[in-house]
Amino acid sequence: MSKQSTRDLILDSAQSLAQARGFNAFSYADIASELGVRKASIHYHFPSKQDLEAALLERYRAQFLSALDSIEQSAGGSVTRLKRYADLYAGTLSNGRICLAGMMASDIGALPEQLAPTLSAFFKEQIDWLTKVMTQGKNAGDLNFSGSAQSQANALLAALQGGLLVANAMGDETLFKRLGQTLISRLQ
Amino acid sequence: MSKQSTRDLILDSAQSLAQARGFNAFSYADIASELGVRKASIHYHFPSKQDLEAALLERYRAQFLSALDSIEQSAGGSVTRLKRYADLYAGTLSNGRICLAGMMASDIGALPEQLAPTLSAFFKEQIDWLTKVMTQGKNAGDLNFSGSAQSQANALLAALQGGLLVANAMGDETLFKRLGQTLISRLQ
DNA sequence: GTCTATAGGTGGATAGAC
DNA sequence: GTCTATCCACCTATAGAC
């Protein structure tokens, strides 16, 4: 059980709050009371909220890319990989949370412009990874779809992000699980 | 050119701001400066921000339902109706805005609980309408899909909502237009 | 209905002691 | 690194004159 640094604890708390409420609906005071420290301590690690937001996104992006690597190195064909990809999203849905990137996308109009390129890169990486899986799956005969692999990748990413949004708003987690099955079964 | 009441002007301004920034990232002061009135005047029409938010959602819901009626009464088969439905979403994307309901869904964790049932009803109405169009289209031979009409309706709603989010975050309006084509063409 | 003025609270952020 | 103390800007909301 390695000790987590205060910095990491702050990021964990902030991420949970951001995924549940949005980037403009949590404060340093929220994090401080959750961790039992003072606001000034958080400002020591992240001088401005923009610094915190940027660190949140970077960490989430790195974790997500790492998860994609893990999926690629595990056994299973394209269908299994897509299922495991959808499960990454389903995992965020518990406790009324959605994907951090999806939340940031919805808040993009109220966030510092400097964050937009990284968020855009995040989505591009997701689409590129999905496009690769789609292409491999089609070539191997595991997947069957018409149109380009990239347009299928776009559609899957959009459906998963929107599915989190709608399922969370309707308080119906099973809606998202059924959606994942629908999306993947029609690619077979 | 009928005069718009101050109340309607307030709702217009608030809706535009909410769709662009989110419900927790615009203020009475923003609306006041946009309309050239004082904050207190807005409080006269909408005593609390919760009142304003509720009115925004109700009006959006009524307008959307009216648009669905209009689509139903116009000529054209199921494919045309789905295309016109997707166009309702595409229309919001200009000027960095997304669907008001999608934005409210992302902010649901930071909004008064009283709004959740109405938002949930909004999404249910969308799904029911799409399910009806899907069913009619399949029976008429216009549409072709496996699985239930309702799961296809869920998937289409989710993909459109998520598509707005991703396209807006990536600053790529054409991504959404291509998505709409992909989603509908694979139902034929 | 709209205004001026203001209350009461919370936001992010900084200075400086320990 | 964490704390106390504080600043100032902004938020929602209300009272009361016009």
pLDDT < 50 runs, ≥5 residues of chain A: none
Query: What is the string of SSEs of chain A from the N terminus onward?
Result: HHHHHHHHH
**Chain pair forming the biggest interface:** A-B, 50 and 50 residues
Average of pLDDT of chain A: 97
Explained architecture:
The structure is a homodimer of 188-residue chains. In chain A, 73% of the residues lie in helices and 0% in strands. Chain A is built from nine helices and no strands. Chain A has a domain at 57-186: Orthogonal Bundle (Tetracycline Repressor, domain 2). The relative contact order of chain A is 0.12. Chain A is elongated, with a radius of gyration of 18 Å. Chain A is mainly alpha-helical. The structure holds a DNA duplex (18 and 18 nucleotides).
Précis, in short:
Chain A has about 190 residues and is mainly alpha-helical. Helices cover about 75% and strands about 0% of the residues of chain A. Chain A binds a DNA duplex (18 and 18 nucleotides) through helix 3.
